[in-house]
Amino acid sequence: MHNNHKDVDGRQGEGGGQILRSSLTLALLHGHPLSIRHIRGKRPKPGLMRQHLACVRAAQAISGATVEGAELGSDRLSFAPGPVRGGNYHFDVGSAGSTTLVFQTIVLPLLQAAEPSTVRFSGGTHNPMAPSLTFLEAAFLPLLRRFGASIEIEVERWGYMPAGGGQWVAHIQPSTLSPIVVDHRPEIRDSEVIAHLSNVRHTIGTREIDSYRDHCPVPDSRYGVRHADADCPGNQLSHTLSFGGLNACFTALGQHRLRAETLAARLARRVQRFLASQAALCEHLTDQAMLPLMVAGGGALSCSPLSEHARTNRALIEQLSCIRLGIEERPGHLILHLTQDHP
């Protein structure tokens, strides 16, 4: 067996699909073979579901990997990647499976490739249990660009559950990520609240906006209603805070029988909690910043307290890489940074 082979237990920590995705990303970045057992072992329906399979297939496609166990319901996977190659790819997640999670699985490896990539995604773009495409555009990509990544995306159509049908394209240029230091939250430069509507009544958006104004924790925010192309009805309320090259984006999806006023109040509470801290990165971005920090080889980021998701991700990255992700407590926030190699 390859002496650099890594063995992962999918029941560790949170025990969900993120262990699979981060393991695939790390295998692609480091070129090491990987075995994962008990995939999604703590979920009510363990094993590979459609969107997890899409991540495996995408990782296989960009690296010519040898894969065993890549089938629906499988709780074991062996994955031996070759070199990552840029190029033109199309990944169809099927129905409303999350395209953003597939993107996050392969984006860092494709930034390391020798050639540029154009990647088309088909499937879900705004799912309750995954980062929305809005969050990706407003918060995750600006963070990657701060590290030095060259990525642009074009959104053609949104895809909500259950129909999906979203279409978007990522243009990824080979990029070297460099350490960044964001050790405090800069001043807010801009605050924008948008009700996004697809095939639903305009009044829903105006009610959400009117209600959000009553709760909004940021004075002088800008408000708007936008209509997004989609194959099915859908609605999302978003609040994006810009700190100058770094953003926080909070989103909430409308649901059947959920009042516009209730949705607005819930979203405002999340923004209030974030602003009550001193953190520059929200809880979700804290989690998603760990792998870029590792690839950049250094840096320090002002973060929110680690969710169980983030603690699981941190432990996995340390297990599969020769790095430590240090956490330093400061008043009202944490500093996440790289420390010395493993002994």
From TrEMBL:
Q: Molecular function terms in GO for this entry?
A: RNA-3'-phosphate cyclase activity
Pinpoint the RNA 3'-terminal phosphate cyclase insert domain residues.
184-275
Q: Which gene encodes it?
A: rtcA
For this protein, the record's InterPro entries field holds: RNA3'-term_phos_cycl_insert, RNA3'_phos_cyclase_dom, RNA3'_phos_cyclase_dom_sf, RNA3'_term_phos_cyc, RNA3'_term_phos_cyc_type_1, RNA3'P_cycl/enolpyr_Trfase_a/b, RPTC_insert
UniProt keyword terms in alphabetical order: Ligase, Nucleotide-binding
Catalytic function, reaction form? a 3'-end 3'-phospho-ribonucleotide-RNA + ATP = a 3'-end 2',3'-cyclophospho-ribonucleotide-RNA + AMP + diphosphate
One short Pfam name that applies is RTC
Protein name according to UniProt? RNA 3'-terminal phosphate cyclase
Q: Which NCBIfam families match?
A: PRK04204.1-2, RNA_3prim_cycl
Q: Which residues form the RNA 3'-terminal phosphate cyclase domain?
A: 13-324
Enzyme Commission code(s) on record: 6.5.1.4
EC category name: ligase
The species this protein was found in: Marinobacter xestospongiae
Q: Which family does it belong to?
A: Belongs to the RNA 3'-terminal cyclase family. Type 1 subfamily.
